[in-house]
Model the fold of this input.
Amino acid sequence: MSTTAIILLAFTSALAASGDLDSTFDSDGLVTTNAVPFSLDRWDGITSIAIQLDGKIVAAGNIDVLSRSNSNFAVARYDTDGSLDIAFHMDGRLILCQRPGGRGC
Done:
């Protein structure tokens, strides 16, 4: 999954038992999260999603800074209602620089 105009770390959906979107998850069954401030110079995408034993959802992927040929690893964790889990890295999001001290991180 990729985006051009929206900084997207996580696009996650929840399904009810019938297969319909679960409206108790972020009110419409879908959640989109900005990993970093808006920039047209970034391409972001999820590569992995996992559900923890407590039901929290972890989404991980890359944030690519196109003009710098720089790629960073990003993680977000959600509560079962689709909100960011603020117990995870203070705001529910974490960006790890693949080049410590590198530009664009």
